[in-house]
Amino acid sequence: MVNRLVRMLCAWLLLAPALHAQGLAQAPAPAAPAVADVPGSFRVLSYHDVRDQLRSTFAAEPEATAVDTAELVRQFSWLRENGYQPVSVDAIERARAGGPALPDKAVLLTFDDGYRSVYTRVFPLLKLFNYPALIALVGSWLESAGMVAYGDQSLPRDRFVSWDEVREMQASGLVEVASHSHDLHRGIIANPQGNSIPATIARQYAAATGAYETEAAYRARVAADLKAGADLLQARTGRRPRVMVWPYGAYNQVGIEAAAQAGMRITMNLEPGPNPPAQPLSAIRRTLVMFNHTESELIELLRQPSQLDGQVRPIERVVHVDLDYVYDPDPEQQEKNLSLLLERILRIRPSSVYLQAFADPDGDGVADQVYFPNRHLPVRADLFSRVAWQLRTRTGVRVYAWMPALSFRLPTGHAAAASVVRVDPEAPAGAGVNRQHRLSPFDALARRTITEIYQDLARHAVFGGLLFHDDATLSDHEDASPAALRQYRAWGLGDSLQGIRADAQKRRAFAEKKTAHLVDFTLELAREVRSHHPALLTARNLFARPVLEPEAQEWFAQSLESFLGAYDYTALMAMPWMEGAADADAWLDTLAARVKAVPGAQERVVFELQSVDWRSGLRIPAQVMAAQMRRLHATGARHFGYYPDDFHNDHPAEEVIRPALSLEAHPVRR
Questions:
Q1: What is the pLDDT of residues 199-217, one digit of tens each?
Q2: Alpha-carbon distance 574 to 609, whole Å?
Q3: How big is the chain by its Cα radius of gyration, in Å?
Q4: How confident is the model over 543-588, as pLDDT tens digits?
Q5: Residue 212 and which of 292, 527, 542, 628 are 20 to 30 A apart at CA?
Q6: What totals of helices (H) and strands (E) does the chain contain, helices first?
């Protein structure tokens, strides 16, 4: 099973979120409007094998990204007839260096893996159309004397180009040769459960020792492979490659730096969208062309906006999952629990899953343990990587790692254990009660500890989003720790919380500066994670009161406007029973109206409904939740979801919630 998954990685595994955005995964995304590419932009198309009469032989073939020869001819003709101009890497570099500008509708054609069809079928077409192209070669495959290890298959060496054929294509002036790694086009075991994850980004797990590859060993392995691949291409072709094309599109900052050291400062991934002048050449986006793409699909691919530039916000339908519900001390039962979750997500068809990465069995919102290896907290089970990968690859959802921003209870004796948020000792009795345990965002040691926890999460799991928990709050009586008081003095507010509260102008400035401070800290954490997961999207939980009562910013250090400017999505806690609303529908109507009144808010706010009334302990009927979703949609709300999902007890009931939530069951168009 592991090897079979490796073989299909390029087509479905790592690419699930990208394919979902292109409408190719199981839950099709709504069509996005065309966004005009800015002058100087270029698009990149990623092809693989090319075969005659593909559809009649596809079932027996190993590569799902092959295209039919006749279809490729039609696509090349369509590009020419519609004003698209294939360009070379040279032209792109010259334009970026201040030379001749790229033409409108510039497109770079790339062909991965070094199939022999790039010589027998593609090269003649390139000469016929006079189109330049880039071919990406896996060094170890071309060096193989006999069979080529391709996933769980051994393919004949003659399925791939010969070095003589590579040199002939290069000599034509139409074809540039890029590295596709020396031996990283494969998966490696990356967690105790045996998941095979792309070798470029995974830290290898050794079952015999129960240990992960060290960070130094990982960096050395990647650097050595990229250098070996570049050295081989230089030796075989006479030219050192300047382009690294990431296998499966899997890359990170470590890889980018290693590629640059090997002489490849241009790298290409598989994130769809345009490459405007501001897009660095170290992270060129490419759009994957699949076997079932025809001319009409090609049109959509070349119009597709980028999620990462904020050009488009895909419709979000979210199921928020407690990993505590999957965990079991019995590994066999734990796998059964995971299967239940996966099957349920497959049936419901959300676009994203917010997946808990910390352990909170007592439900107090504080992370005493986590579900991934790290330097600071006990590991309840090394489980997050397994569940996130299975969700991503089996169901096609984007997985957001749900993490506290401040609420970590460090072990006794930890150097930062006492670096916590303090309530003003002069505050009235009862002030600050019900505020959970948090490390102080003003304390340097606490911040470094939290940052390292996030770094460890990013290294040990693959995920596409980050959801910051609702714990990043500070009341008007917080934080009174020494580090916080020093910051208030630096802000010009003095170091007396009572004095700040007594002055209306200072009180307002205090709320705004704390809000900004928390936003800035979470964005620092996101930057750390993004160095490992460059396509990361961000979301943050927001309480409803700061939306309904603007003065509540002083009590929470949260505001809708600040969140909209900082995160890809704001996960608004639209939970009327939690807020004690007498009329849940009227409360939701008011909340939706407040969001709608803020320009651009509906593009970024995910209304997160509750499936449990925590005050009474009763479940909210699925019929009520579905009606709430329809009610929100009628107001113009675009994104919604719910928490928590009880997959053990089918709550909310699938047959009721699916038609209201799923994009597949009830597609929502812009």
A1: 999 999 999 999 999 999 9
A2: 5
A3: 26
A4: 999 999 989 999 999 999 999 999 999 999 999 999 999 999 999 9
A5: 527
A6: 24, 28
